[in-house]
Structure formats: C-alpha cells, structure tokens
Amino acid sequence: MLLEPKPDNSCFVCGGANSRGMHLTFEQDDEAKRIRGSFRLLNAYQGGAGFIHGGIIATLLDEVMAKVNRFASDHAVTAKLNIEYLRPVPVEADLVVEGWELERNGRDRFRQGEIRNASGTVLARGRGHFVEIGRERFQESIRSANAAPADADHGKF
Fold first, then answer.
1. Rounded to the nearest 5 degrees, what angle is found at the Cα of 9, between the Cα atoms of 18 and 104?
2. How far apart are CA 11 and CA 69, in angstroms?
3. Which H/E stretch holds residue 29?
4. 129: buried, middle or exposed (CB in 10 Å: 19+, 13-18, 0-12)?
5. Among 26, 94, 110, 127, which residue carries the largest CB count within 10 Å?
6. Residue 94: its H or E element
7. Domains of the chain, earliest start first
8. 3-class state of residue 68 by DSSP
C-alpha cells in the first residue's frame, strides 16, 4: 500500500500541507511488516557539498521507524534515536529507506531503520525507542500543540 503525502498533513517529511516539506511517499509492506521509501533527495537537503545533511538522515530514519506504528495502529512517539553514519549519503542519488520493529515490551517499541544506495549498501542505520502514548493522549497532545503560544514547550506528552 502506498503512503502518499496527505494534503492536510503538515509533517515535514511525509505531509502535503507543508510548503517547505519533503513530500515523500512510502510503501507499507504488510506481509514483511516493513515500511519502505524509494526516492532521490535534492541539493536543498545537503550538508557538506554533495552529501545529505546528517540531521536529514536522522529525520528520514525517525520517520520510517515511526511509520511502523501503522502495523499495530499504535500511537507511539520517539523517546530515543541513535544513528550510525556509516558512509556519506549522496544528494541526487537513488536511495531506499526501510524501517521495521525489533521488539515490543509493554508500551515500549524498539525499531531499526536503514538507508541504502541503489546497489544495497547500507549508508546509515538507526535504532529507535518509541513509547506508546495511546490515541487519546496523542490527540490531546496535537490539540495542545496547536493551541499553545509560539514559545510554549511542545516537547512534553
């Protein structure tokens, strides 16, 4: 199933409503329980000349691991994110981003993600610890963030 940018979603990575966003499409593989994205990132996302910025790499890995929530209809948020930058990730190159679940323990979700080049070489790897916050609390967090003044602390759930 394709997960295309939704016009009313402001997510920087996958939303369609963010004019500065990446507007990326992902694929949900129900059989393998994996989320994948295949795309090329433009020069706008580079850090060092010709290479994707490390923060963008972390963002992509966080996004693909968070989308694994879809398999269990979880509402889990990132609690910890660890990134291994194994090789430079070039701009304007065909890339595959993939995420999957490693383990579930109570409210804790442990996930892994990778960014690979067209030949399958792993360029970056991430491990994430996500915490289930429940649908009601998730929705309340969204309402609070939308209603809060610009200088409010949005990091608390």
1. 120
2. 16
3. strand 26-29
4. middle
5. 26
6. strand 94-105
7. 2-147 (3.10.129.10)
8. helix
Place of tokens 């679940």: 101
pTM of the model: 0.85
Tokens of residue 105, six digits: 């323990």
Q: Are 139 and 123 in contact (CB under 8 A)?
A: no
Per the CB < 8 A criterion, the answer to whether 112 and 100 are in contact is yes
Which 3 state secondary structure label does DSSP give 153? coil
Q: Phi/psi at 15 (nearest 5 deg)?
A: -85, 155
Per-residue pLDDT of the chain (157 residues; tens, 9 = 90+): 999 889 998 888 988 898 888 889 999 999 999 999 999 999 999 998 999 999 999 999 999 999 999 999 888 999 999 999 999 999 999 999 999 999 999 999 999 999 999 999 999 999 999 999 976 766 676 666 667 555 555 454 4
